[in-house]
Amino acid sequence: MALNSNTFIEGINPTATFGGYASVLLQLIRQAIPSSTYGMILFDTTPPDVTGSNAWRKTCIWLNLSNPSLPTVNVYKEGGSPGWVNVNNIIGNDAIVTAMISNNAVTLAKLSTTGGSANQLIRVNAGGSAFEFVSLNNLVTAGSINVSALNTVGIPATQFRIPGTTGPGTAAWVLPSSVIDNLPDGYIANDYIAPAANATSRSQFLTTRLGDPFAAWRYFDPTNDLQPNAMNGDRVTNSSIALSKIIPATSDALLVTQGGAVSWIPYPTANFVNKYVSAEIAIPPHTSPIMTPLNHGLGGQPIMLYAVLRCVDAGGDAGYNQGEEVPIETFYVQDGNSDEPAFAPRATATQILCRRTSESTIETMNVSSGITPHTIVENHWRLKFYALI
Asked: Which of 3, 107, 260, 363 is the most buried (most CB within 10 A)?
């Protein structure tokens, strides 16, 4: 029903005039024009007209019924941009206080994320005056979690465990030995192993011995680290054992092999041949034809002296190969129309001496081609002497 704007005459007695019918009284009320600050409720689907004689409607509350399932409550606003305003839109900023909000009534969807970023938390600021967004890594820092705050339920007394996993699954308390057992072979690099505290130029090894509770850095000790009869001859380099390393027998004894075994025997006093072998020496130059005397140490006059030239050049000479020893008599020099021996060796009771017989070049036969004479290259050869007593 449209609103009726007929005026209501104050002071009239509607009961006497209209017989006091309730319907008449209600119609009169609906048609009344307020004469005080009190208003009424207007029901309509369109904004009520407030122009001219309808200005009184500005003091009314209008229930907007344009959407019957969701009516709105509206009041008329004077001033700038006057008109009907939904009361839901006239609540001022900061007008709702805590007392107006029911407990557990604010959902997460009502909270604003303005000023925050992904995976941040809300906390009270350092001044205790406002909330702020903060990242988790700024909350959990080194030393921020006290050891006493860790839950150690399930760890037996006297055991040491660490939090972690030894495979896929939920993190749990595990023994350090379980972690070590799950390390791949070769996982610990050598630069993670601390060197010996007293390291020197002598090598040390991380080893254990009987009775050790832990491994220790030690020098190699043949007395304790090698079992008896553990080293065989294959482990020893040829010609590497000096005479001073051999345990001596009683005086005047010889080390010989007898019946497949090595043993000491008494030094023979008769029918024994003592041999001397000299070191290799250069051929005396023709400008100084006498060789420096060699002390043979045989203790007497040798009964035999044998002299050779040994070829020392990798390419050989005169058809001889490197390492071959050729009797000294094979070499000669030409003196006029005759050939003479190139060397004159001799021995005394204490020394071996040798003289070059001529300043001429030394010659021999080329044993490969048979050509004579063949002049040798002197620095391709070395003198060597054998003596027996």
From this structure: 363
Please, which residues bridge with residue 305 across strands? 387
* Single residue among 89, 116, 138 that ends a domain in this structure: 89
Global pTM value: 0.34
Tell me how far apart the alpha carbons of residues 285 and 379 are, in angstroms, rounded to a whole number.
10
Give the domain-ending residue among 34, 57, 89: 89
306: tokens are 């044998």
> Within a domain: residue 120?
no
Range of the domain at 297: 275-388
Structural contact between residues 123 and 135, judged by C-beta atoms closer than 8 angstroms: no
Q: How many domains does the chain have?
A: 2
> pLDDT confidence of 1, banded at 50, 70, 90?
very low
Cα-trace Rg, the chain: 63
Q: Is 292 exposed, middle or buried (0-12, 13-18, 19+ CB in 10 A)?
A: exposed
Q: Read out DSSP for 150-180?
A: S--TTPPTT---EEE-SSSS--EEE-HHHHH
Pair 8, 27: CB distance under 8 Å:
no
CATH number of the domain that residue 312 is part of: 2.60.40.10
CA distance 302 to 39: 157
Instruction: Supply the DSSP string of 208-259, one letter for each residue.
Output: --TT-SS-EEEE--HHHHS-TT---GGGS-TT---GGGSPP-SSSEEEEEET
Model confidence at 20, in pLDDT bands (50, 70, 90)? low
Q: Of the candidates 330, 311, 328, which has an alpha carbon nearest to the alpha carbon of residue 320?
A: 311
Tally of residues, the chain:
389
Q: Shortest CA distance to 175 belongs to which of 166, 188, 184?
A: 166
Residues 64, 66, 68: CA angle, nearest 5 degrees: 90
